[in-house]
Amino acid sequence: MSAPRPLLSVQGLAKRFGGVVALVDISFEIEAGSLHTILGPNGCGKTTLFNLIDGSLKPTAGQIVFDGERIDGEAPHRIARRGIARKFQVPGVFNELSVAQNLEIALARVGGGYSVSALVTARPDRDRRDQLADLAGLTDKLGYKVSEIAHGERQRLEIAMLLAGDVRLLLLDEPTAGMSVTETESIAHLARRLSEERKLAVLAVEHDLSFVRALGAPVLVANEGRIIARGDYEEIRKDPRVIQSYLGMAADA
Ligand SMILES: Nc1ncnc2c1ncn2[C@@H]1O[C@H](COP(=O)(O)OP(=O)(O)OP(=O)(O)O)[C@@H](O)[C@H]1O
After folding, report:
1. Which residue out of 44, 49, 60, 224 has the highest number of ligand 1 atoms within 8 Å of its CB and is therefore the one to mutate?
2. Closest atom of ligand 1 relative to the 49 alpha carbon
3. Where in the chain is the domain with CATH 3.40.50.300?
4. d(CA 45, ligand 1 centre) in Å
5. CA of 27 to the centre of ligand 1 (A)
6. pTM, whole model, 2 decimals?
7. ipTM of predicted complex
8. CB atoms inside a 10 Å sphere around CB 149
9. What is the pLDDT along the chain (253 residues), one digit of tens a residue?
10. The CATH number of domain 1-83+167-253, selected from 2.30.40.10, 3.40.50.300, 3.90.550.10, 3.40.190.10
11. Cα 242 from Cα 251, distance rounded (Å)
12. Cβ–Cβ contacts within 10 Å for residue 157, how many?
């Protein structure tokens, strides 16, 4: 039997900004419903990689194939429509509105686009809103203003808002930056639920080893624009190339 077609296939991807080489010959594949982390220090090219996958940038070389079709160089809104959603580090939520209202706005956007009239006239789908709140572990926070909930809860809220659409690949950009250990574990728990219950693939870039360990997923280690190691958490933390170029003092994490 032939291997299943990967959901995302990145082959020989490279990006230069003038004389600055941001990414060199990046290749990896992600299956539907799987979890992966890219671990790397600041400047290793994580943001550039996400900018290439979501269409914000065009590659200098290489290709990106999503669900069997090339998407490199395609406009970001078309890539988003294919089912790729990206969560940025700073949560894009409305602080003065309630958790419930934020989720309702996300659902209305999917149904009616971004026009103000669509948002104002949309009738909230309370069942779907409550499902999203449950997924994010925010059922008991529906009535709270977003400014009143914790940082980790705001991050989970934004992930739930992204899932209002038909998402198949979720890109998480340093999802646990500034979080406590418990909050970090709650994001890893949510990512695992998305994979298991919704068959959503999640690709997270992080430099926080505790998240990589909590997620328990395959890791690609990046350094200076290249992938220098691949494996699970235990394998990469023992890899001499990783210890030398990245882990250093963090090797006991
Ligand atoms: N628009 C740009 N013009 C010139 N150089 C850039 C540009 N964007 C990124 N770079 C360079 O490419 C390299 C990779 O940057 P990138 O932002 O992708 O790294 P990163 O791993 O996301 O780091 P950080 O976590 O600090 O954002 C760096 O050397 C950076 O200075």
Report:
1. 44
2. 18
3. 1-83+167-253
4. 6
5. 19
6. 0.90
7. 0.94
8. 18
9. 567 789 999 999 999 999 999 999 999 999 999 999 999 888 889 999 999 999 999 999 999 999 999 999 899 999 999 999 998 877 688 999 999 999 998 998 776 555 666 556 666 778 999 999 999 999 999 999 999 999 889 999 999 999 998 999 999 998 888 888 888 888 999 999 999 998 999 999 988 888 888 888 999 999 889 999 999 988 988 888 888 776 554 544 4
10. 3.40.50.300
11. 9
12. 26
